[in-house]
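User: Some background: our group keeps a shared notebook of sequences we're curious about, and every so often someone picks one and asks for a predicted structure to add to the entry. Today it's my turn. The entry only has the sequence so far, pasted here. Could you supply the structure so I can complete it?
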Amino acid sequence: MIKHQETHPTLDVPDCFGCKISTVSVPSSVTPTRRAGAQHAKWVNDTENRWHKDMPAYKRLVEDGLQPPRIDGCAELEAKASSKQQIEAGCVSSG
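Assistant: Of course. Here's the predicted structure to add to the notebook entry:
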């Protein structure tokens, strides 16, 4: 883009592909697989807040020879699970 601006500083030279393409922009709304900026930031912050509790619990469970299926929810598993099977299945029966 900078090199092109040296050649055509006004970016309005007729029949110049570089001038035409330099004015094209793509809004984020046409890329549905990407999260919008604020929405993505909130998702990241929410995940970090959950993992702030779950990561140490996951580490303790693994050090005890257990293997939880995922990091999410490990703090609750550690607090409520009463057997190795519940921890490794990733669910605590309510009752």
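Suggested note for the entry: The two ends are 65 Å apart (CA to CA). The mean pLDDT is 80.
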